[in-house]
Write a structure and sequence with these properties.
The structure is a single chain. β4 and β5 form a beta hairpin. The chain has 307 residues and is an alpha+beta fold. The strands form 2 sheets. The protein has a 5-stranded antiparallel beta sheet, with helices on one face. A 3-stranded antiparallel beta sheet has the order 2-1-3. 38% of the residues lie in helices and 14% in strands. α9 packs across α10. It folds into 2 domains: 138 residues, GIY-YIG endonuclease (3-Layer(aba) Sandwich), CATH 3.40.1440.10; 152 residues, no CATH class.
C-alpha cells in the first residue's frame, strides 16, 4: 500500500473536489507545514499519492512523510486560489514554503536630490527612507543589488562620488546602502528615475552615450560593459516587469508595497485589473470555509562602450 493511502485512507481522494482551491498540510501536532494552490484539487493531491523516487518528487515525498492531515479550501477560480495562496504564505510562513514567504526582504531603490548633491539608496526598509523617491518593490535582491551597485560604479564616470568620510551618518537601518554624488549632471537623476521605474529602455542608450564621452570609462571598457549588463538585467527582469504589471492592472500606488508585489504580478499574468481600478469591482468575492476529511516586455538594446 502506498504511504499516502496508509496515512489518509485509500478513499481520501474521492472526497476531494475537482475544483480550484488551496490545500494545507499539517503535522501530527497540527502545525502548518505547507500551503499550495491547484487548478484541480483532486488532481494535485493525487500527485502526492503517486510520487516516485525521483528528484523532482523529493519534496512531495518528504511532505507526505511529515503530514498527518490535509485540508483544503475551494476557490472560485485558479487566480483566486493563487491570490489566497500568496496571502496565506505571507501571513503564516509555513516552513516548507520559501518563495514569496518573506516579502519584507523585497528591495527598493531610491533617489533624493539635495542641492548639488544627489543621494541614492538601496533598502528593504522603505519607512526609513521617507525623504527619497523610492522605486519598487522589486523581488530579487541579487539582481537588484547587482544592478544598483553597477549603476553606482557607472555614475562615478559622470559625477563625483562623495568620499565615505564626508557622506554624513550611515544608512539609518542595517543592510541598507546610501551613495552621494556631487555635481551629477542635471539630466542624470531624472534619467536614473526613469530607468528604476522601468519607463523606457532608451535610458540605457543615453547612459552608454554619456559614458562614451568619458576617457575613464573607455579605458575600463570591459568592466563598464559588465556593469552595463548588470543594469540591463535589472531593468529587464525587475523594473520593466513591475512597470508592465502596473500598466496592465491599473494599479494606482507607487512604490508598490512589498506585501502587494506578488499579487500584483499574478493579476498581471492573468490580465485582471486590481480592485478599485477603472472597470473593476471594489469588492472581492467571499471565500468559502475551510474543509477536508479527517482533517515583457521585450529585451532592451544591448549596451556596450565602443573603443
Amino acid at each position: 500500500m502506498r504511504a499516502f493511502d496508509r496515512k489518509f485512507g485509500p478513499g481520501f481522494l474521492a472526497d476531494v473536489p475537482a475544483r480550484p482551491g488551496v490545500y494545507r498540510l499539517h503535522d501530527a501536532e497540527g502545525a502548518l507545514l505547507y500551503v499550495g494552490k491547484a487548478r484541480d484539487l483532486r488532481r494535485r493531491l493525487a500527485q502526492y499519492r503517486t510520487t516516485r523516487r525521483v528528484k523532482r518528487d523529493r519534496k512531495r515525498r518528504a511532505l507526505v512523510r511529515a503530514a498527518a492531515r490535509i485540508a483544503w479550501e475551494v476557490c472560485g477560480s485558479e487566480m483566486e486560489a493563487a491570490l489566497l495562496e500568496i496571502q496565506l504564505i505571507q501571513t503564516l510562513r509555513p516552513p516548507a514554503n520559501v518563495a514569496g514567504a518573506f516579502p519584507f526582504l523585497y528591495p527598493f531603490v531610491g533617489i533624493r536630490a539635495d542641492g548639488r548633491d544627489t543621494h541614492f539608496c538601496l533598502t528593504t526598509s522603505p519607512a526609513a527612507f521617507a525623504t527619497f523617491d523610492l522605486h519598487g518593490a522589486f523581488r530579487s535582491r541579487r539582481v537588484t543589488g547587482e544592478g544598483f551597485f553597477a549603476l553606482m560604479r557607472l555614475l562615478r564616470y559622470v559625477g563625483h562620488l562623495t568620499p565615505r568620510s564626508r557622506r554624513g551618518p550611515r544608512a539609518p537601518v542595517p543592510h541598507s546602502y546610501v551613495f552621494t554624488f556631487r555635481r551629477l549632471p542635471a539630466d542624470w537623476p531624472p534619467l536614473c528615475a526613469r530607468l528604476l521605474r522601468g519607463a523606457a529602455p532608451d535610458v540605457l542608450e543615453h547612459l552608454v552615450l554619456g559614458l562614451v564621452e568619458r576617457a575613464g570609462a573607455r579605458a575600463r571598457r570591459a568592466r563598464v560593459q559588465e556593469d552595463l549588463r548588470a543594469v540591463r538585467r535589472f531593468f529587464d527582469d525587475e523594473a520593466a516587469v513591475l512597470a508592465d504589471a502596473i500598466a496592465a492592472t491599473g494599479y494606482r500606488r507607487y512604490p508598490v508595497p512589498q506585501h502587494e508585489r506578488d499579487a500584483l504580478l499574478l493579476r498581471s499574468r492573468h490580465g485582471v485589473q486590481v480592485a478599485g481600478a477603472p472597470g473593476t469591482e471594489n469588492d472581492a468575492p467571499a471565500r468559502p470555509p475551510l474543509t477536508g476529511p479527517r482533517s515583457a516586455r521585450a529585451r532592451s538594446p544591448r549596451a556596450c562602450v565602443p573603443p
